[in-house]
């Protein structure tokens, strides 16, 4: 369990993290989303004691990170996969970490196997690809078999096989009752991986909650219906709060009404339906809506290529 109260980090005049409070519950994967510079890494660094809050506090299992006797066994973190001495081998890096934290050498071999690094564990880390470095970062985070994992962009640089592997890994860690808190800019991946979301922009919380609830609250849902009697159906369901858009012949898109209500009304009036379905927006759509005003580093559309 991670609990932040009024957590704040200022760099000079700039509030990187601005009075945020949240709880990351065990047994779930919580996705941490936000545009570049929103404050995700700063928040994660404060959780593991690498940055000191300007105000407020953050605890892991009831204590600040530094007050745990064996922090690596409590919290595993992947924050900067490149922060490993390039001249060392992966195995020697992990063995050094294990030795300084009272962790057995057997566990080093376990995490090497678990992260698919067995074939390269004796090689210099300086020669690792981005994806291999990420795997080593995840191995380091798993070393103390911690109850809480904090992973900043764990799928960055991984190939599709690696991305799927991380998804299964974090889901199984959460199923074991662990707390998993991870950031990613890959929305489709996050939608498949996370149970809960915490979305921040300019250091403030924009929204938090179960993934589907966050999507629905931002974008709403649309009922799509197709019927040879679409006009009659539209007249029946037209009420305050229901928005009706006519699509191609015989199809309607309705907002502010449930699938059940549309189906019930159609049945009650003997109206034949050829299609009735709920259309949900993607997490990417919801995220774009949510963060529209919180993007600090906006890109300009690319000019059309001259022919
Ligand atoms: N050591 C530092 N000194 C000054 N400003 C900093 C420092 N670290 C972070 N910042 C600023 O704090 C803000 C939050 O940065 P942070 O790295 O936490 O964002 P982020 O959400 O992790 O971004 P990204 O998605 O790009 O990784 C940014 O404006 C950043 O420039």
From TrEMBL:
Keywords: ATP-binding, Hydrolase, Nucleotide-binding, Transport. PROSITE patterns: ABC_TRANSPORTER_2. GO terms for molecular function: ATP binding; ATP hydrolysis activity. SMART domains: AAA. Its EC number is 3.6.3.-. It comes from the Bacteria. InterPro entries: AAA+_ATPase (IPR003593), ABC_transporter-like_ATP-bd (IPR003439), P-loop_NTPase (IPR027417). Residues 2-227 form the ABC transporter domain. CDD domains: ABC_BcrA_bacitracin_resist. SUPFAM superfamilies: P-loop containing nucleoside triphosphate hydrolases (SSF52540). PANTHER family: ABC TRANSPORTER, ATP-BINDING PROTEIN. Belongs to the ABC transporter superfamily. This is Putative ABC transporter ATP-binding protein YxlF. The lineage of its organism: Bacteria, Bacillati, Actinomycetota, Actinomycetes, Micrococcales.
